[in-house]
Amino acid sequence: MTDNFLTDVNDGLSKSSKTLPSKYFYDEIGDKIFIEIMNMPEYYLTKAELSIFKNQTQKIIDSLQLKPNQFFELIELGAGDGTKTKELLKELLNQNFDFSYLPIDISQDSLNHLEKKMKLELPKLTISTKQGDYFGVLGGLNNSNFPKVILLLGSNIGNMSDENATIFTSQLSSSLQKNDKVLLGVDLIKVKEIVLPAYSDKNGVTKRFNLNLLSRINKELEADFNLVNFDHLAIYNEAEGIARSFLVSKAAQKVTIKKLGKSFSFEKGEKIHTETSRKYNDEILSKILVNSNFKIADKLTDSKNYFADYILIKE
Questions:
Q1: Are strands 307-314 and 294-301 parallel, antiparallel or unpaired?
Q2: In this structure, which of 33, 147, 195, 301 has its CB flanked by the most CB atoms within 10 Å?
Q3: pTM: predicted TM-score of the whole model, two decimal places
């Protein structure tokens, strides 16, 4: 992980428009801050999707065309704390479905907590965790011929550019067999007044989350970022349907990363792009799926129409 982290930080900060990958938000401290974010009143995404999983659990099972007597693998990409998934898992166990649960996450700390939680709350659940990023595990999906259901919740696909999301869905499609299913959670396009506070809250939780990325670079890569000299900025273009987060240098400064043996200069007001959060509608998702063999079989939304869980089937 450290070598990849080092390479990605060097590549991102060497660009004329600096970037840092959002996947590195999630260390032990970042995981805890993100749980705070999910509990913020402004952060509607988790609540909206959780309401789908709580109130439409049977519809999810029916839309996925699952059969109690046919074993399948339930593979979750970016599992997090498993709060939403647990609603589905409970119902599958209650109805005696034959399946195993394979959560995959970039954060080993999250997986450790998830496995402990699931074994305690759902002792009958067969669970096997795997640490890695989405692209790293796609190749391994071909190792078994069992039917598969892929969960990609929380609008995690929205952190990818449209180009990368198109590549990702194409690769995911090619890694699956005919009639395998994907449950894809996406945030729907909404007005700025609803979206923006989720990424820039009044209590500064999202700011701490963003700045923790610099703390992690300091700690793991022996850098000397002064967090006081950086601010958090979120913007949302409603017409485009994309929210973006940045770290902004508050002064002209130089930062040294010892493990790189290199320094980086920042102008006052210079931005580091840390996260993209794409919002969707049917048209945008159809364009993302254009190079895949997925068809949209169903769409479940929360009562406010903030969020959607799409059911995709590999043709």
A1: antiparallel
A2: 195
A3: 0.90
Task: Give the integer Cα–Cα distance in Å for 111 and 261.
Answer: 33
* Residues 110/112/117/120 CA torsion (nearest 10 deg): 180
Domains delineated in the chain = 2-24+193-278 (no CATH), 44-190+280-314 (3.40.50.150)
What's the burial of 290, exposed, middle or buried (CB within 10 Å: 0-12/13-18/19+)?
exposed
- Supply the mean pLDDT for the chain: 94
All residues at 6 or more sequence positions from 142 whose CB lies less than 8 Å from its CB, including other chains: 175
- What are 218-251's pLDDT values in tens digits? 999 999 999 999 999 999 999 999 999 999 999 9
DSSP string, 159-218: GS-HHHHHHHHHHHHHHS-TT-EEEEEEEBP--HHHHGGGTS-TTSHHHHHHHHHHHHHH
157 three-state secondary structure: helix
- Beta partners for 235? 244
